[in-house]
Structures are given as C-alpha cells and as structure tokens.
Automatic annotation (TrEMBL):
NCBIfam families: PPR. This is Pentatricopeptide repeat-containing protein. Keywords: Repeat. GO terms for molecular function: RNA binding. InterPro entries: E_motif (IPR046848), PPR_At4g14850-like_plant (IPR046960), PPR_rpt (IPR002885), TPR-like_helical_dom_sf (IPR011990). The keyword Zinc-finger does not apply. GO terms for biological process: RNA modification. Pfam families: E_motif (PF20431), PPR (PF01535), PPR_2 (PF13041). PPR repeats lie at residues 15-45, 46-80, 81-115, 147-181, 182-216.
Amino acid sequence: MEPARKVFEEMPERNCFVWSSMICGYCKKGDVEEARAIFDRIPVRNLVNWNSIISGYAQNGFCEEALELFAKMQTEGFEPDEVTIASVLSACAQLGLLDAGKEVHHMINRKGIQLNQFVLNALVDMYAKCGDLSNARLIFEGMPQRNNACWNAMISGFSIHGQSKEALEFFGRMEDSEETPDGITFLSVLSACAHGGFVNEGLEIFSKMENYGLAASIKHYGCLVDLLGRAGRLKEAHDLIKGMPMKPNDAVWGALLGACRIHLDMETAERVVEKVGTQDFNMHSGDDSHYVLLSNIYADSDRWEKAERLRMVMGNKGFQKTPGRSSIMLSNSESQFLAITR
C-alpha cells in the first residue's frame, strides 16, 4: 500500500473508483482504521464507496461497525444493492443476529433486490450460522445453482448446531453433485463426526481427502484427534499426533488432554505432558489452558494435592485464568455477563 498511497496522494483528481481502490487495499491488508480515514476524506460519496467500506469492515470482523455504516448510508439517501446486502448479511451471520438478518431478507423482497448467487449464498450462510436451519435449507433447495460456498454453509451450519446426521447427508449429496468438496468442507464434516460420535465415518471421510487432491492441514488432524479422543480411543489419538507430518500445536494437544479429562486417563495425560514439555504448550505467551486442563484432570481423579500444586505453579508463573463471558440479546441490545471462577 505504500507505493499505492504515494501515487494516490500525487493525483490531481480522484474519481470514485480510485477512492474505493484505496479503501479495498487497506481492508485487504487488515488496516481498517486507515481505510476509514480514506473513506472520511471522500468529498462526494457514491454507492461504490459505501460498499467498499462496509464490505471491508465485515470481512475483517468489524461487524458492528459495518451495520452502523449500513444504517448511516441509508439515512444519507443511498439505496443498497446486491453487494451491500451480501456484506450486511455476512455481518449479521458473524454476530449471530437472526432478527437483523431477517429484516435484511425482508428488505430484499421489499426493494426487489436481485437474488443473485452472492445474495443467496449470504442468506443461506446467515440463516445457517444463526441456527435457523429450516430457512437455510428452504433457500438452499430453491437455488438454481449451488457452489462450494452454499454447500459449505449448510454442512457447517448443521455441524455447529449439533445436527451431525444432516451434515453427513449433505456431504454425501455434495459428493454426488458437480461441486467438489474443499478443505473447509472436510473441516466441517469431520467436526460433525466428532460431535456426533461417528468415528468410522470420520476416519473414512478423512481418508477421502487424498482422492480430491487435498493435503490435510493441522486443523484437519486436530479434528481427527478430537474425534478419536471423544470416542475414548486415546492411544490411537496419541499415535496419530506422533505420526503427523507437521509439528502439533496447542489446539491438537489441547484436544487430546481434553479427551483425557473426559475419560479420566491420567496415564496418557502425564505421558503427554512429560513428553512434550511446557515449552511446546506455548506457555511463554501466557496461555495457561493446558495447565488448567491437567489440573482439572487431577481434580476429577481426586488427586487434589497434584491439582493444587499445579495451580500454585500457575500462580508463580503469573498466569491468570481467562474469565468467561456470555451475552444475550434484550430488546435488540446486547448485554454481556462476566463469569469469574477459580
């Protein structure tokens, strides 16, 4: 963006596409603050400029800001188009705001906005992420064409909301369709298998990745460790970690330790901690999650002395347990609750 900014500042005149190009560039870089500064400098804005900043906010996870700008855009007399709607629906999906998403859906029908592939995908994704799987499926089944994005939205939605059989059903349908599963598809369906207890199905699906020319990432291996761990097959999970083509990260070890806690397998838990050491648990970053897990395993096994000793180690190292947070919607406003436990 540095050479782009230099050319931009030297231009005697700038049209709407120049302004939007700079906004999009900074958003792709993740610098939404600079993108907003550019947007605020535009002397006369048009819909392209509004879409650029709203889309950039949504893509970078600044969803509240995206919705605020969407409202401001309308108060200034601009009518949303397909690009605006797709970005706003994405923001609603990320925030889990089903009611707001439904209002946008009503707006689409009321204003006669074209239901192109991007808008339909965004609607499916919004309903699926917000848990309204009936509406998500209704829109999905009525789509004239389906790409990877809408298939993944449905499979992920079923997986996230505990409908593992439906996720497997849609994965089978996707395989029979003209669309090819990608890495995101496999992550979603493997997660569904883990939460649904479909161990054999999960192992078979994992083996299919090679057939589609996909290399399993550490996230796919993490799902497989979680799958085996939840089923109590801890030795297989541990052997899988040892045979991984890449170095296991905190999430992978955490999945195994979490399974050790569920099944009260102290032997495997202690062997893991002894083998990898705390340096592989990224403890220098202040992440005490694995210490907490091991301490809880000791406590669940009535080994209170070891549990307390581990908590003392955490205290001496200056680690503090991250407080949990919950939120609920009350009259379209969000209220957060802080839960602090020992």
